[in-house]
Amino acid sequence: MITLKQLAEQLNVSISTVSKALHNSEEISPDTIVRVKALAKHLNYKPNKVAISLKNSKTNTIGVIIPDILNHFFAKALLAIEKEASKQGYNIITCLSNEKKTKEINSLNLLSNGSVDGFIMSIAEETQVANNVDHINAILLQNIPVVLFDRVSDNIACDKVIIDDFGAAYEATKHLLSEGRKHIVLIGDIQDLSVGKLRVNGYAEALKETSNYINEPVVVSINKDNLIDETIQDVFKKHPSVDGIISIDNTSGVVALQKAQKLNYNIPKDLSIIGFSDENVLQFTDPKLTTISQHTLDIGKASVKLLLDRLNNKKQIASKTKTIKTKLVLRGTTK
Amino acid sequence: MITLKQLAEQLNVSISTVSKALHNSEEISPDTIVRVKALAKHLNYKPNKVAISLKNSKTNTIGVIIPDILNHFFAKALLAIEKEASKQGYNIITCLSNEKKTKEINSLNLLSNGSVDGFIMSIAEETQVANNVDHINAILLQNIPVVLFDRVSDNIACDKVIIDDFGAAYEATKHLLSEGRKHIVLIGDIQDLSVGKLRVNGYAEALKETSNYINEPVVVSINKDNLIDETIQDVFKKHPSVDGIISIDNTSGVVALQKAQKLNYNIPKDLSIIGFSDENVLQFTDPKLTTISQHTLDIGKASVKLLLDRLNNKKQIASKTKTIKTKLVLRGTTK
DNA sequence: CTGAAAGCGCTAACAG
DNA sequence: CTGTTAGCGCTTTCAG
């Protein structure tokens, strides 16, 4: 890489003159500025990012920790984060915790040495199950800002971006009730997560409020991917009168639809299905799945904004929590 | 952040003594080492990464440029790259080109200022269509190593990781022929890409070699996601006697299967389908899709290895191309 | 208008 | 065994 020093030598001026010239300093003669810039351009000079970071104690880099990049929700969130960060002149260093607490701790430790100005993350499943977030609080104690999105924790005082999980599930359930559904089952593989619990509660509350709904809430947990087929087939065996299904994760709604079609349920006449999925699954089914849209891009964008707000304004104290609106998008799997 | 200077002041020793002590230098008395380390631990000292990068002219960071993170193949490749890089003590800065050439150029320019030691990337669609890779060659001219994976270009002399696209499609086609299929259609949305062209060629070659195969090759291009439904339905309309489908992208195989089932094709009796998809789509269909497995994790891992090899051994000249074996995994959609 | 010097945090050659 | 110094590349104050 070409440096200021090399430019200075070739031009027989000092390093500081070169530096100032490249910044259009008033102190430098127009003539010199032209000469310096010409050579800089000719040699494709680029200011060394590392040196600037050291000088400014600021890297313009955000650490992003994603629990599961193969989950479409997180991939899309990353897309939005990268886009907004890039727009604001920030790079992102991506770490994938793969739902492991140790990897999460490791990533935080490895990057909290001046590598990044702050973190945007969603908490790993293992961490949420263990309910131990000391490692994240440790980062905050070092005065490195953190923004949590989607999977958050009440035990961490920082900026957060969430959706109204309770309300979204509540609304979806209410919709099925309004269709006259009498036997609504909730399925999902994220009941251990903060968001999963809230969604289950929203579902339960909607049923509870409905005086003429006589069945008990049914919550079916999918534990491992390889058992998803059987688990969902069991739903239809155990609850042959099921007439509404709410999936609170990304994929089980689609699988439920496939299985129901295989069993010759008439959808949506006999059975309605609502997924908590992203648009990507639409192409995989016919009829198309009614979903709760999470506005994932907005979640990512808002996360970056909150973080940069804090970076640019260290004195602000109160943590903000931004709630992104969800939307129930009716398609072919509901009446 | 706590610095060597602060430790030195508190201990009344020089900065270099502290630095050496922390590195277990023989020059330093055991007693001092203990004292220094104790304080460092107590204050949670971490060497400033930026300073070390500046000192060493090495960031231990890899720039990764991904064309489309919502594509499962690339998400998985990123997963593998991050995992291997992390294992080797490297961070990754992720940029998403979103298939745009300008974004690709931008990312390369912004990171080729000492931010990263090298790049791992797959070429954006727009770049491949325009067939202009000057910006990538410019990086190589700056002596920054680049590893290309999946989507490569003959006009770039660098290390590459690919699969045998021609061979994989050839093998899949041969398999369908061995089942006695007489009317095999290829579908996909990546015919503009290097990999897509090779796959089409492999398909065509297999047909051509088969003397008793009388139908012409049929290549159906899917242009936009929103037209995928109609495009595939058209296949069945135009070619009612189709008895074999090869999808060369991630999703169209699944869609073809759905549509065929809707049209009451008996699969795999009347019609076989082979997808170029990852395992993630398996849960979405019944029967499960026969696929060409790309060993995506190996692709990512190999890319990191090639890059680090080059970083650690600058003198090597010849570019290597590593070909990862594919595997035809027979499942329910073939006989 | 230009240059010298200090300093960001660290390492390492050299001096004591 | 410990300290001084220079330097990685840059910005910026201060001197000239």
| Oligomeric state of shown chains | homodimer
Largest sheet strand order of chain A: 2-1-3-4-5-11
User: What percent of residues of chain A adopt helix (DSSP H or I)?
Assistant: 40-55%
**Mean of pLDDT of chain A:** 94
Low-confidence stretches of chain A: none
Total strand segments of chain A: 12
**Which CATH top level class of the largest domain in chain A fits?**
Alpha Beta
Shape annotation of chain A: elongated
CATH topology value of the largest domain in chain A: Rossmann fold
Q: Given the helix and strand composition of chain A, which structural class is it?
A: alpha/beta
What's the name of the CATH homologous superfamily of the largest domain in chain A? Response regulator
- Name the chain pair whose interface involves the most residues: A-B, 53 and 53 residues
The CA-CA distance between the termini of chain A, in Å, is: 64 Å
Which percent range describes the beta-strand content of chain A? 15-25%
Query: SSE string of chain A, helix = H, strand = E?
Result: HHHHEHEHEHHEEHEHEHEHEEHEE
Domain HTH lacI-type (chains A, B): 2-56
Organism (chains A, B): Psychroserpens ponticola
GO molecular function, one term (chains A, B): DNA binding
Domain HTH cro/C1-type (chains A, B): 2-50
